[in-house]
Amino acid sequence: MANDSDGTTSANTGADMDWDARAAGFDAEPDHGLRDPEVRRAWAARLRSWLPGRAGDVLDLGCGTGSLSLLASEQGHRVTGVDLSPAMVTLARQKLAGRDAVFLVGDAAAPPVGEQRFDTVLVRHVLWALPDPGRALRHWAGLLRPGGRLVLVEGVWGTAGPVGIPAERLTGLLAPIAGQVRVERLSGDPLLWGREVTDERYAVVAVTA
Predict the structure, then answer these.
(1) Pairing mode, if any, of strands 118-124 and 200-207?
(2) Nearest to 79 by CA among 132, 138, 151, 30
(3) What is the DSSP string of 119-188?
(4) CA-to-CA distance for 174 and 170, rounded, in angstroms?
(5) How far apart are CA 139 and CA 166, in angstroms?
(6) Which Pfam families does the UniProt entry name for this protein (predicted)?
């Protein structure tokens, strides 16, 4: 997981965080743990609109404690989650115990999934922190079956030293690899975050050829 969506500065990016140390308290954030029923319903509704209508294979990169993985599983999808933090992966495994889901420790930019291919690659608050977002996107697109989709939740956070990736830059990176690209603005929906937000938050759904 690469962004806690709160208090991030240019000197304290996701790559600098000790995510193992933060794992135990990670779900305390409303949009991380989805413990509030209204926040959970808001994310479930968005995810339902982003993921394929039929059951499929979802690769959740930077999955954290598995909250979005759990929603995808509840909607009938088979989930593979990848996170660099072993502590996060342990919590995700516990959260989805007994479900059709597997969680791996690994780099989101180059997930250790071998030749397996997916219907959807789901990534929330990870791409902005990677050293080469364009390369990561091309690799992720290569993990998709024909007609698969990238679902990318990103934003720009902070005021004194904002960090993130603007929607315009992300759609530009996707242009050579995706046939259809849709941007959905998320800043205006406080239910997703458990509070009002003023920074840029959005989702991009990109369907490959």
Answers:
(1) unpaired
(2) 151
(3) EEEEEES-GGGSS-HHHHHHHHHHTEEEEEEEEEEEEEE-SSS-EE--HHHHHHHHTTT-SEEEEEE-TT
(4) 6
(5) 20
(6) Methyltransf_11
**Do residues 197 and 46 lie in contact, with contact meaning Cβ atoms separated by under 8 Å?**
no
Structure tokens at 104: 């791996």
Residues 6+ apart with CB under 8 A from 195: 30
Q: Which residues pair with 164 in a beta bridge?
A: 156
The secondary structure element, H or E, covering residue 208 is none
Question: Over pLDDT 70: what percentage of the chain?
Answer: 92
**Which of 193, 121, 183, 127 is CA-nearest to residue 154?**
127
| 16 — pLDDT class (breaks 50, 70, 90) | low
Q: Is beta strand 118-124 parallel, antiparallel or unpaired with respect to 144-157?
A: parallel
Closest CA to 176 of 205, 144, 134, 145: 134
